[in-house]
Amino acid sequence: MNAMARRLGDAARSERGDLLLYCNGIDYEAQDDIGSYLEFECLPTGGWGYETLPIGARYLRTLGKPVLNMTGRFHKSWGDFGGIRTEPSLEYDLRYGMANAMRTTIGDHFHPRGDINQPVFDLYKRLYDRLQRYEPWLAEARAVADIGLVWPTPYPGYKYLSPRGRELYNRFWKAIKGGTRLLCELRQQFDVVTTFSDWSGYRLLVLPDFVTLDAEVASRVRAHLDRGGAILSSGWSGLDPERRDFVFGEWGLRYDGDDPYDPAYFRPAPRLAEGLPDMPITFYQRGAAVAALDGTEVLAEIIAPYYNRHWDGYGEDAQVPLKQLLANLLPSVLPAPLVRAPGLPSFARATVTEQPGRRMVHLLSYCPERRGDRVDMIEEPIELRDVALALREDVPVRSVYLAPDREDLPFEVRDGYVQTVVPRVPGHAVVVFEE
Predict the structure, then answer these.
(1) Torsion over CA of 75, 80, 82 and 84, rounded to 10 degrees?
(2) Tens digits of per-residue pLDDT, 12-67?
(3) DSSP character string of 44-58
């Protein structure tokens, strides 16, 4: 398949060098020398779900090509001619892509008769009329990130269709999905990275659950540590590929195998206890058993259950105390995050893009709700008022305003951050910080 795509790409470019070329179904990294841009296809109500675009957006933007956000109006999947999503749900997809430096498209099919479904195209016109006003702040914008979330097994195309390959891929997918959700809810700015991309620009690397250190990953982690970067790892991450022990002494741990307790409980030290109930809290999953080496600071204790009950599944259980534990831990490894917005509700999102001379903070306030057995739905945006927002002052800022109307916002610089208050977020607001 890759060889065929390469031949087709070479033939197309020999006729016309400026063609837009993308090969659907081939894994993205294999297209490095084939196409001219990348597309990320995601119909959240058609089987992909609302957890997929946040991962794809943050991964594809690290691959060095323009990225197109391909959504669609179908309630189910492609060819669902009688189905149409709500306008807010489709607008959310488009605005989420914009907020992550993706360009916008809505995929569709003509009816088999070949004519246009006018209500559908009326919907498209309303959406594009609103969104194209943001074009000055979208053109050539790129995402800004403090954190690299490491994904050992990225979107595979057709490489992992064997049962063993699919099992491996699904295991990493669950870990990366859980990590993405946690960091999004905590308003952290991050990319999803593989060994294809450069890791040198990140202040923090997050290794979720299963990232063992082969020669390539170990050399990158070593370089990151030597630059003074921080590491946050969970589960078995940091072990050698045979899972015998941790590769680097900086982990400060001895690996003692898989945890014999299921479920184990934890109780944090006072330093990490803010917002957590004063009780043993379950992990709902079997993890790794580790022992602290001399000199390692211990910030929580593990408590054994009376008996094992075979709990399973971190990504499935969405334990809020584990998110709070991560929130309490992050200031130790990332004391000055790019964005602070402590008053945002957990369903809201904040992302940062930049152009020469300015940075944009996108605030999104939508909440997909489970309807029926399998479909999450958005019927309306959720308006927020008086949102306190602070952007790290990496460069001096001379003005702050709301796009696209250029409404000025009062601001002050305090404690290394440019601080302002956004009076109203009607589902989406773009706050521009001009140098």
Answers:
(1) 30
(2) 999 998 999 999 888 899 999 888 999 999 999 998 999 999 999 999 999 999 99
(3) GGGTT-TTHHHHHHH
Helix H or strand E encompassing 276: none
CATH top-level class of 147-333: alpha beta
CA–CA separation, 179 and 192 (whole Å): 10
Predicted confidence (pLDDT) per residue in 151-191, tens digit:
988 887 777 678 888 888 888 999 999 999 999 999 999 99
**Could you check whether 147-333 and 339-434 share the same CATH topology?**
no
Please tell me the least confidently modeled range out of 102-111, 235-244, 405-414: 102-111
Strands (E) across 82-188 are located at 103-107, 142-143, 147-150
**CA nearest neighbour of 323 among 257, 191, 234:** 234
Q: How far apart are CA 71 and CA 75, in angstroms?
A: 11
- Find the angle CA(6)-CA(10)-CA(11) to the nearest 5 degrees: 115
Give the integer Cα–Cα distance in Å for 327 and 432: 26
Confidence of residue 116 (pLDDT cuts 50, 70, 90): confident
For the chain, what are the domain ranges? 2-141, 147-333, 339-434
The Cα 187–Cα 86 span in angstroms is 26
Nearest alpha carbon to residue 344 among 433, 432, 421? 421
Are 180 and 161 spatial neighbours (Cβ–Cβ below 8 Å)? no
Looking at residue 164, what is its pLDDT? 83
DSSP 3-state assignment of 8? helix
Confidence of residue 313 (pLDDT cuts 50, 70, 90): very low
pLDDT for 309 equals 67
Whether the CB-CB separation of 312 and 263 falls below 8 Å is answered with no
CA–CA dist 73, 81 (Å, integer): 9
> Which CATH number among 3.10.310.70, 2.30.42.10, 3.55.40.20, 2.60.40.1180 corresponds to the domain 339-434?
2.60.40.1180
Cα–Cα distances (Å) from 350 to 145, 184, 233, 239, in that order, read: 12, 8, 24, 33
Task: Say how many residues make up the chain.
Answer: 435
Which residues make Cβ contacts (< 8 Å) with residue 418, sequence separation at least 6?
390, 391, 392, 393, 397, 400, 411, 412, 433
